[in-house]
From TrEMBL:
Family: Belongs to the flagella basal body rod proteins family.
Naturally occurring in which organism (per UniProt): Blastococcus saxobsidens
Residue ranges constituting the Flagellar hook protein FlgE D2 domain according to the UniProt record: 182-290
Signal peptide: none
Superkingdom per UniProt: Bacteria
GO cellular component term, pick one: bacterial-type flagellum basal body
GO biological process: bacterial-type flagellum-dependent swarming motility
Protein name (record): Flagellar hook protein FlgE
Protein backbone atom coordinates (compact mmCIF):
# COMPACT_ATOMS: atom_id res chain seq x y z
CA UNK A 1 0.00 0.00 0.00
CA UNK A 2 2.81 2.42 0.81
CA UNK A 3 4.25 1.90 -2.67
CA UNK A 4 1.02 2.99 -4.34
CA UNK A 5 0.78 6.04 -2.07
CA UNK A 6 4.30 7.16 -2.85
CA UNK A 7 3.71 6.61 -6.58
CA UNK A 8 0.61 8.80 -6.35
CA UNK A 9 2.56 11.45 -4.42
CA UNK A 10 5.11 11.58 -7.26
CA UNK A 11 2.19 12.02 -9.68
CA UNK A 12 0.85 14.89 -7.57
CA UNK A 13 4.23 16.59 -7.68
CA UNK A 14 4.57 16.14 -11.45
CA UNK A 15 1.09 17.46 -12.16
CA UNK A 16 1.60 20.35 -9.76
CA UNK A 17 4.65 21.32 -11.83
CA UNK A 18 2.54 21.08 -14.98
CA UNK A 19 0.03 23.41 -13.34
CA UNK A 20 2.83 25.84 -12.46
CA UNK A 21 4.14 25.89 -16.04
CA UNK A 22 0.66 26.27 -17.52
CA UNK A 23 -0.23 29.09 -15.15
CA UNK A 24 3.00 30.90 -16.06
CA UNK A 25 2.15 30.56 -19.76
CA UNK A 26 -1.32 32.00 -19.21
CA UNK A 27 0.06 34.83 -17.06
CA UNK A 28 2.37 35.82 -19.94
CA UNK A 29 -0.18 35.52 -22.73
CA UNK A 30 0.31 39.23 -23.52
CA UNK A 31 4.02 39.51 -22.71
CA UNK A 32 6.04 40.80 -25.68
CA UNK A 33 8.42 38.19 -27.06
CA UNK A 34 7.40 35.54 -24.50
CA UNK A 35 7.91 31.90 -25.45
CA UNK A 36 5.63 29.32 -23.88
CA UNK A 37 6.87 26.18 -22.15
CA UNK A 38 5.65 22.58 -21.93
CA UNK A 39 6.23 19.86 -19.34
CA UNK A 40 7.41 16.37 -20.24
CA UNK A 41 6.92 13.50 -17.76
CA UNK A 42 8.68 10.15 -17.51
CA UNK A 43 8.35 7.18 -15.22
CA UNK A 44 10.79 6.55 -12.42
CA UNK A 45 12.61 3.32 -11.53
CA UNK A 46 10.57 0.14 -11.40
CA UNK A 47 10.74 -2.58 -8.75
CA UNK A 48 11.30 -6.05 -10.21
CA UNK A 49 9.03 -8.63 -8.53
CA UNK A 50 10.12 -11.46 -10.77
CA UNK A 51 12.90 -11.52 -13.26
CA UNK A 52 12.44 -12.67 -16.84
CA UNK A 53 13.74 -15.97 -18.14
CA UNK A 54 15.21 -17.06 -21.44
CA UNK A 55 13.53 -19.76 -23.52
CA UNK A 56 14.86 -23.26 -22.90
CA UNK A 57 14.55 -26.54 -24.76
CA UNK A 58 11.64 -27.70 -22.62
CA UNK A 59 9.92 -24.39 -21.84
CA UNK A 60 9.34 -20.91 -23.17
CA UNK A 61 10.76 -17.64 -21.92
CA UNK A 62 9.07 -15.46 -19.32
CA UNK A 63 8.81 -11.70 -19.07
CA UNK A 64 9.85 -9.84 -15.94
CA UNK A 65 7.17 -8.65 -13.52
CA UNK A 66 7.83 -5.02 -12.64
CA UNK A 67 5.96 -2.45 -10.60
CA UNK A 68 6.57 1.19 -11.39
CA UNK A 69 7.41 3.60 -8.60
CA UNK A 70 5.70 6.69 -9.97
CA UNK A 71 6.32 9.57 -12.35
CA UNK A 72 8.78 12.43 -12.42
CA UNK A 73 9.44 15.56 -14.42
CA UNK A 74 11.67 14.80 -17.40
CA UNK A 75 11.97 18.29 -18.87
CA UNK A 76 10.40 21.71 -19.24
CA UNK A 77 10.88 22.64 -22.89
CA UNK A 78 10.55 26.12 -24.36
CA UNK A 79 8.61 26.59 -27.58
CA UNK A 80 10.56 29.04 -29.78
CA UNK A 81 8.08 29.21 -32.65
CA UNK A 82 7.35 32.64 -34.13
CA UNK A 83 4.81 34.79 -32.30
CA UNK A 84 2.24 36.96 -34.04
CA UNK A 85 3.21 40.46 -35.18
CA UNK A 86 1.60 43.53 -33.64
CA UNK A 87 2.04 46.83 -35.45
CA UNK A 88 2.85 49.72 -33.09
CA UNK A 89 4.11 52.47 -35.39
CA UNK A 90 6.93 53.30 -32.94
CA UNK A 91 10.30 53.68 -34.65
CA UNK A 92 12.07 52.09 -31.67
CA UNK A 93 9.98 48.89 -31.69
CA UNK A 94 11.79 46.09 -33.51
CA UNK A 95 10.61 42.60 -34.36
CA UNK A 96 12.68 39.59 -35.43
CA UNK A 97 11.06 37.61 -38.23
CA UNK A 98 12.76 34.23 -37.97
CA UNK A 99 15.42 32.88 -35.63
CA UNK A 100 17.74 34.93 -33.48
CA UNK A 101 17.87 37.15 -30.41
CA UNK A 102 18.62 40.80 -29.73
CA UNK A 103 21.88 41.25 -27.83
CA UNK A 104 21.66 43.52 -24.77
CA UNK A 105 24.04 44.53 -22.02
CA UNK A 106 22.46 43.82 -18.67
CA UNK A 107 23.40 44.92 -15.15
CA UNK A 108 27.11 44.61 -14.42
CA UNK A 109 27.93 44.39 -18.12
CA UNK A 110 26.55 40.86 -18.54
CA UNK A 111 25.64 39.97 -22.10
CA UNK A 112 22.02 38.83 -22.32
CA UNK A 113 19.65 37.93 -25.15
CA UNK A 114 15.98 38.69 -25.73
CA UNK A 115 13.19 38.41 -28.28
CA UNK A 116 11.34 41.39 -26.80
CA UNK A 117 12.07 44.30 -29.14
CA UNK A 118 10.43 47.18 -27.25
CA UNK A 119 13.22 49.74 -26.90
CA UNK A 120 13.42 53.40 -25.99
CA UNK A 121 16.04 56.10 -25.46
CA UNK A 122 17.78 56.92 -22.20
CA UNK A 123 19.30 60.26 -21.25
CA UNK A 124 22.50 59.41 -23.15
CA UNK A 125 20.71 58.53 -26.36
CA UNK A 126 21.23 54.78 -25.92
CA UNK A 127 18.55 52.35 -27.06
CA UNK A 128 17.49 50.48 -23.92
CA UNK A 129 14.96 47.87 -22.81
CA UNK A 130 12.27 48.78 -20.24
CA UNK A 131 14.56 47.51 -17.46
CA UNK A 132 17.55 49.58 -18.66
CA UNK A 133 19.57 46.96 -20.56
CA UNK A 134 21.41 48.55 -23.50
CA UNK A 135 20.86 47.26 -27.03
CA UNK A 136 24.10 46.11 -28.66
CA UNK A 137 25.43 46.43 -32.19
CA UNK A 138 28.05 48.32 -34.18
CA UNK A 139 28.19 52.11 -34.47
CA UNK A 140 29.06 53.55 -37.88
CA UNK A 141 32.31 55.34 -38.68
CA UNK A 142 32.16 59.06 -39.58
CA UNK A 143 31.96 58.12 -43.27
CA UNK A 144 28.93 55.89 -42.63
CA UNK A 145 30.68 52.50 -42.91
CA UNK A 146 29.92 49.80 -40.35
CA UNK A 147 32.49 47.20 -39.29
CA UNK A 148 30.40 44.20 -38.28
CA UNK A 149 33.54 42.13 -37.66
CA UNK A 150 34.48 44.08 -34.56
CA UNK A 151 33.16 43.65 -31.01
CA UNK A 152 29.61 44.76 -30.30
CA UNK A 153 28.90 47.81 -28.18
CA UNK A 154 26.02 50.08 -27.10
CA UNK A 155 23.86 51.49 -29.88
CA UNK A 156 22.77 55.10 -29.70
CA UNK A 157 20.94 57.54 -31.96
CA UNK A 158 22.41 61.01 -31.34
CA UNK A 159 19.45 63.28 -32.13
CA UNK A 160 20.59 66.76 -33.02
CA UNK A 161 24.04 65.55 -34.12
CA UNK A 162 25.51 67.90 -36.70
CA UNK A 163 27.02 66.69 -39.96
CA UNK A 164 29.61 68.89 -41.65
CA UNK A 165 28.92 70.21 -45.15
CA UNK A 166 30.41 68.43 -48.14
CA UNK A 167 31.42 70.25 -51.29
CA UNK A 168 30.00 69.07 -54.62
CA UNK A 169 32.55 67.12 -56.64
CA UNK A 170 30.42 65.39 -59.29
CA UNK A 171 27.35 65.96 -61.41
CA UNK A 172 25.81 64.08 -64.33
CA UNK A 173 23.47 64.31 -67.28
CA UNK A 174 21.58 61.40 -68.77
CA UNK A 175 18.72 60.78 -71.18
CA UNK A 176 17.95 61.44 -74.83
CA UNK A 177 18.44 64.55 -76.96
CA UNK A 178 15.81 64.76 -79.74
CA UNK A 179 17.47 64.40 -83.13
CA UNK A 180 14.68 66.08 -85.08
CA UNK A 181 14.90 69.54 -83.49
CA UNK A 182 16.50 72.40 -85.48
CA UNK A 183 19.92 73.89 -84.82
CA UNK A 184 19.80 76.58 -82.15
CA UNK A 185 17.48 74.58 -79.88
CA UNK A 186 18.47 74.92 -76.22
CA UNK A 187 17.69 72.73 -73.23
CA UNK A 188 18.44 73.66 -69.65
CA UNK A 189 18.56 71.49 -66.52
CA UNK A 190 18.75 73.00 -63.05
CA UNK A 191 20.89 71.54 -60.28
CA UNK A 192 21.85 72.37 -56.69
CA UNK A 193 25.55 72.32 -55.89
CA UNK A 194 27.38 73.22 -52.69
CA UNK A 195 30.69 75.02 -52.29
CA UNK A 196 33.38 74.08 -49.77
CA UNK A 197 31.50 75.89 -46.97
CA UNK A 198 28.23 74.14 -47.74
CA UNK A 199 26.63 77.23 -49.30
CA UNK A 200 23.99 76.39 -51.90
CA UNK A 201 24.98 77.34 -55.45
CA UNK A 202 22.26 77.21 -58.09
CA UNK A 203 23.64 76.08 -61.45
CA UNK A 204 22.24 75.07 -64.83
CA UNK A 205 23.37 72.51 -67.40
CA UNK A 206 22.90 73.99 -70.86
CA UNK A 207 22.71 71.83 -73.98
CA UNK A 208 22.50 73.63 -77.35
CA UNK A 209 22.20 72.05 -80.78
CA UNK A 210 24.85 73.53 -83.09
CA UNK A 211 24.26 71.43 -86.20
CA UNK A 212 23.42 67.99 -87.51
CA UNK A 213 24.32 65.47 -84.78
CA UNK A 214 26.34 68.10 -82.86
CA UNK A 215 25.61 69.75 -79.52
CA UNK A 216 27.39 71.90 -76.95
CA UNK A 217 27.16 71.29 -73.20
CA UNK A 218 28.13 73.89 -70.60
CA UNK A 219 27.56 74.64 -66.90
CA UNK A 220 26.45 78.14 -65.91
CA UNK A 221 25.86 79.63 -62.48
CA UNK A 222 22.49 81.23 -61.73
CA UNK A 223 24.20 84.63 -61.72
CA UNK A 224 25.38 84.11 -65.31
CA UNK A 225 28.98 83.08 -64.57
CA UNK A 226 30.19 80.29 -66.86
CA UNK A 227 31.54 77.53 -64.65
CA UNK A 228 32.38 75.03 -67.39
CA UNK A 229 32.95 76.33 -70.95
CA UNK A 230 31.00 74.74 -73.78
CA UNK A 231 32.19 71.27 -74.78
CA UNK A 232 31.26 69.87 -78.16
CA UNK A 233 29.30 66.60 -78.43
CA UNK A 234 29.09 64.57 -81.65
CA UNK A 235 26.66 61.71 -82.29
CA UNK A 236 26.81 59.22 -85.14
CA UNK A 237 23.99 58.45 -87.54
CA UNK A 238 22.68 55.80 -85.16
CA UNK A 239 22.30 58.31 -82.34
CA UNK A 240 25.24 57.14 -80.25
CA UNK A 241 27.74 59.50 -78.67
CA UNK A 242 31.09 59.31 -80.45
CA UNK A 243 32.88 62.50 -79.37
CA UNK A 244 33.71 62.30 -76.57
CA UNK A 245 33.39 58.52 -76.78
CA UNK A 246 30.24 57.16 -75.07
CA UNK A 247 28.09 55.84 -73.73
CA UNK A 248 29.50 57.07 -70.39
CA UNK A 249 32.15 59.77 -70.34
CA UNK A 250 33.57 62.02 -67.62
CA UNK A 251 34.34 65.49 -68.92
CA UNK A 252 37.45 67.33 -67.81
CA UNK A 253 37.03 68.54 -64.19
CA UNK A 254 36.44 72.26 -63.72
CA UNK A 255 37.07 74.49 -60.73
CA UNK A 256 34.52 77.32 -60.43
CA UNK A 257 36.18 80.69 -60.88
CA UNK A 258 35.00 83.73 -58.97
CA UNK A 259 33.81 81.83 -55.89
CA UNK A 260 36.56 81.87 -53.22
CA UNK A 261 34.75 79.33 -51.03
CA UNK A 262 34.49 76.80 -53.88
CA UNK A 263 37.96 75.25 -53.98
CA UNK A 264 37.57 71.68 -55.18
CA UNK A 265 37.07 70.65 -58.82
CA UNK A 266 33.76 69.29 -60.14
CA UNK A 267 33.52 66.48 -62.69
CA UNK A 268 30.57 66.27 -65.06
CA UNK A 269 29.68 62.82 -66.40
CA UNK A 270 27.58 61.99 -69.44
CA UNK A 271 25.64 58.86 -68.49
CA UNK A 272 24.40 57.01 -71.56
CA UNK A 273 23.54 60.22 -73.39
CA UNK A 274 21.89 59.51 -76.77
CA UNK A 275 20.38 61.38 -79.72
CA UNK A 276 17.32 59.58 -81.08
CA UNK A 277 14.16 60.88 -82.65
CA UNK A 278 11.38 61.41 -80.18
CA UNK A 279 10.89 63.07 -76.85
CA UNK A 280 13.41 64.91 -74.75
CA UNK A 281 14.18 62.70 -71.72
CA UNK A 282 17.11 64.66 -70.31
CA UNK A 283 17.56 64.39 -66.55
CA UNK A 284 20.12 65.62 -64.07
CA UNK A 285 20.50 63.32 -61.04
CA UNK A 286 21.16 65.17 -57.81
CA UNK A 287 24.86 66.06 -57.57
CA UNK A 288 26.77 65.01 -54.49
CA UNK A 289 27.51 67.46 -51.72
CA UNK A 290 25.43 68.66 -48.79
CA UNK A 291 24.89 71.69 -46.62
CA UNK A 292 25.34 71.71 -42.85
CA UNK A 293 22.69 69.44 -41.33
CA UNK A 294 21.46 67.85 -38.12
CA UNK A 295 19.97 64.44 -37.40
CA UNK A 296 16.17 64.56 -37.53
CA UNK A 297 14.99 60.93 -37.51
CA UNK A 298 16.04 57.39 -38.35
CA UNK A 299 14.73 54.26 -40.02
CA UNK A 300 15.57 50.59 -39.53
CA UNK A 301 16.37 48.32 -42.46
CA UNK A 302 15.63 44.58 -42.61
CA UNK A 303 19.34 43.92 -42.10
CA UNK A 304 19.39 45.95 -38.90
CA UNK A 305 20.98 49.08 -40.38
CA UNK A 306 19.92 52.23 -38.53
CA UNK A 307 19.75 54.88 -41.25
CA UNK A 308 19.94 58.47 -40.05
CA UNK A 309 17.87 61.11 -41.85
CA UNK A 310 19.45 64.57 -41.68
CA UNK A 311 17.89 67.99 -42.21
CA UNK A 312 20.01 68.58 -45.33
CA UNK A 313 18.60 65.49 -47.06
CA UNK A 314 21.57 63.27 -46.30
CA UNK A 315 20.79 59.66 -45.41
CA UNK A 316 23.69 57.94 -43.70
CA UNK A 317 24.04 54.77 -41.58
CA UNK A 318 24.36 55.45 -37.85
CA UNK A 319 24.94 51.85 -36.82
CA UNK A 320 23.68 48.31 -37.19
CA UNK A 321 21.89 45.99 -34.77
CA UNK A 322 23.53 42.70 -33.80
CA UNK A 323 21.58 39.45 -33.61
CA UNK A 324 22.68 36.24 -31.92
CA UNK A 325 21.83 32.66 -32.84
CA UNK A 326 22.40 29.41 -30.96
CA UNK A 327 22.72 25.77 -31.96
CA UNK A 328 20.23 24.87 -29.22
CA UNK A 329 18.06 27.80 -28.11
CA UNK A 330 16.21 25.45 -25.75
CA UNK A 331 19.39 25.24 -23.67
CA UNK A 332 19.34 28.95 -22.81
CA UNK A 333 18.84 29.87 -19.16
CA UNK A 334 16.10 32.38 -18.38
CA UNK A 335 17.49 35.47 -16.67
CA UNK A 336 14.25 37.34 -15.97
CA UNK A 337 12.88 40.47 -17.62
CA UNK A 338 12.26 38.47 -20.82
CA UNK A 339 15.99 37.83 -21.25
CA UNK A 340 18.17 34.73 -21.52
CA UNK A 341 21.78 33.99 -20.77
CA UNK A 342 24.06 31.38 -22.32
CA UNK A 343 23.37 27.94 -20.82
CA UNK A 344 25.51 24.83 -20.48
CA UNK A 345 23.70 23.15 -23.39
CA UNK A 346 22.82 26.14 -25.59
CA UNK A 347 26.13 26.44 -27.36
CA UNK A 348 28.06 29.67 -27.78
CA UNK A 349 26.32 32.80 -29.05
CA UNK A 350 26.97 33.32 -32.76
CA UNK A 351 26.67 37.10 -33.12
CA UNK A 352 26.28 38.60 -36.58
CA UNK A 353 24.06 40.48 -38.98
CA UNK A 354 20.34 39.97 -39.47
CA UNK A 355 19.46 37.87 -42.48
CA UNK A 356 22.77 35.99 -42.41
CA UNK A 357 23.89 32.73 -40.83
CA UNK A 358 20.36 31.51 -40.20
CA UNK A 359 19.37 34.68 -38.34
CA UNK A 360 16.02 36.30 -39.14
CA UNK A 361 15.35 39.73 -40.58
CA UNK A 362 14.12 42.78 -38.71
CA UNK A 363 10.89 44.72 -38.97
CA UNK A 364 10.61 48.18 -37.45
CA UNK A 365 7.41 49.56 -35.97
CA UNK A 366 6.17 46.15 -34.85
CA UNK A 367 6.55 43.78 -31.89
CA UNK A 368 6.49 40.01 -31.63
CA UNK A 369 3.71 38.94 -29.31
CA UNK A 370 3.63 35.89 -27.02
CA UNK A 371 3.29 32.55 -28.80
CA UNK A 372 1.07 31.13 -26.04
CA UNK A 373 -2.07 29.42 -27.41
CA UNK A 374 -4.81 29.98 -24.82
CA UNK A 375 -7.00 27.13 -26.10
CA UNK A 376 -4.09 24.74 -25.76
CA UNK A 377 -3.21 26.06 -22.30
CA UNK A 378 -6.78 25.72 -21.01
CA UNK A 379 -6.85 22.14 -22.31
CA UNK A 380 -3.55 21.49 -20.54
CA UNK A 381 -5.02 23.05 -17.40
CA UNK A 382 -7.89 20.55 -17.46
CA UNK A 383 -5.50 17.65 -18.09
CA UNK A 384 -3.28 18.74 -15.18
CA UNK A 385 -6.29 19.14 -12.89
CA UNK A 386 -7.66 15.70 -13.75
CA UNK A 387 -4.23 14.13 -13.38
CA UNK A 388 -3.81 15.72 -9.97
CA UNK A 389 -7.32 14.68 -8.99
CA UNK A 390 -6.75 11.08 -10.09
CA UNK A 391 -3.51 10.79 -8.14
CA UNK A 392 -5.13 12.21 -5.03
CA UNK A 393 -7.88 9.61 -5.43
CA UNK A 394 -5.21 6.86 -5.45
CA UNK A 395 -3.93 8.14 -2.11
CA UNK A 396 -7.46 8.12 -0.71
CA UNK A 397 -8.09 4.57 -1.95
CA UNK A 398 -4.75 3.36 -0.56
CA UNK A 399 -5.59 4.93 2.78
CA UNK A 400 -8.95 3.14 2.86
CA UNK A 401 -7.29 -0.19 2.10
CA UNK A 402 -4.76 0.42 4.89
CA UNK A 403 -7.65 1.22 7.21
CA UNK A 404 -9.32 -2.06 6.31
CA UNK A 405 -6.04 -3.87 6.97
CA UNK A 406 -5.78 -2.29 10.43
CA UNK A 407 -9.39 -3.20 11.16
CA UNK A 408 -8.60 -6.93 10.63
CA UNK A 409 -7.21 -6.94 14.16
CA UNK A 410 -10.68 -6.45 15.51
Amino acid sequence: MLRSMFSAISGLRAHQTKMDVTSNNIANVNTVGFKGSQTVFQDTLSQVLRGGGQPAADRGGTNPAQVGLGAKLAAITTNFTQGAAQSTGRSTDFMIEGDGFFVVQGPGGEQLFTRAGSFDFDANGNLVTPDGSILQGWMAQPDGTVNANGPVGPLSVPYGQMVNPTSTSAGSIKGNLPSDVPAGTDYQLGADMYDSQGVLQKVAYNLSKTGDNTWDVSVVHADGTVLMPATGLVFDAAGNLTTPPGPDYALAPFTPVGYPSWTNPVTMTLQGLTQFGGANTLAAPKPDGYALGSLQSFTLGNDGTIMGVFSNGLRQPLGQLALASFNNPGGLAKAGNSTYRVGDNSGAAMVGLAGQGGRGVLNAGALEMSNVDLSEEFTGLIVAQRGFQANSRVITASDEILQDLVNLKR
